[in-house]
Write a structure and sequence with these properties.
single chain; 193 residues; mainly alpha; Ferritin; 6 helices; binds fe (iii) ion
């Protein structure tokens, strides 16, 4: 394929993102369904709604530029979602599986951030201010989503994930209180080394 101009590069980038977003529309409900943590479930569901708006924004851009966005497949998103499918099918403690889902989702968000950031720069260089503004709006949503996933991970899921792992090690411990004490001893022993 020949990309002879910046206009053509912007068009090609938007087609790629359009395909990526449409693939995500199918994947996000599955991720919401697979998440155990309620905050995470909610984050996936609200990002699904945002994604619908992002596709509409892309349609607006296509109209502004007088181009069509169908007919290209984003192979990167296809691959990321193939990995994501492994995360959906994995088995294990809830918090570990949720952490795996977050890792898959953040890979997706970072791909989108790169794609929207570069497309926005192309649009700006070409003087397509309205298109650049629309791309910026979506870019902001992708970044916010990424940050929200980091917060959920650090505040809610990772503390649970490490205690899940410890309690599997301590399965023979007599009761909850005992095993918590054992965990505390283990971690303080580790930190003294
Ligand atoms: Fe998106
Ligand atoms: Fe792509
Ligand atoms: Fe996104």
């Amino acid at each position: 394929m020949e990309i002879e101009s910046l206009d053509k590069l912007l068009e090609d980038s938007l087609k790629d993102i359009y395909s990526a977003e449409n693939q995500l529309l199918k994947a996000l409900p599955k991720m919401a369904k697979a998440a155990s943590n309620e905050t995470l479930k909610e984050a996936f569901t609200s990002h699904l709604e945002e994604t619908q708006g992002q596709v509409e924004r892309l349609d607006q851009m296509a109209e502004l530029l007088g181009i069509k966005l169908k007919g290209k497949k984003c192979k990167a998103m296809e691959g990321l979602l193939e990995e994501g499918k492994e995360a959906l099918e994995a088995e294990g403690p809830e918090a570990i599986l949720d952490s795996n889902l977050i890792a898959a989702a953040q890979r997706v968000e970072h791909y989108e951030i790169a794609a929207y950031g570069t497309a926005r720069a192309f649009a700006k260089q070409l003087g397509h201010e309205e298109v650049a503004d629309l791309l910026q709006e979506t870019l902001d949503e992708e970044k916010a989503c990424d940050e929200k996933l980091t917060t959920i991970s650090i505040d809610e899921i990772l503390p649970q994930a490490s205690s899940d792992a410890e309690s599997e090690d301590e399965e023979d411990a007599a009761g909850d209180e005992d095993s918590e004490e054992a965990v505390a001893t283990t971690s303080s022993r580790k930190s003294r080394r």
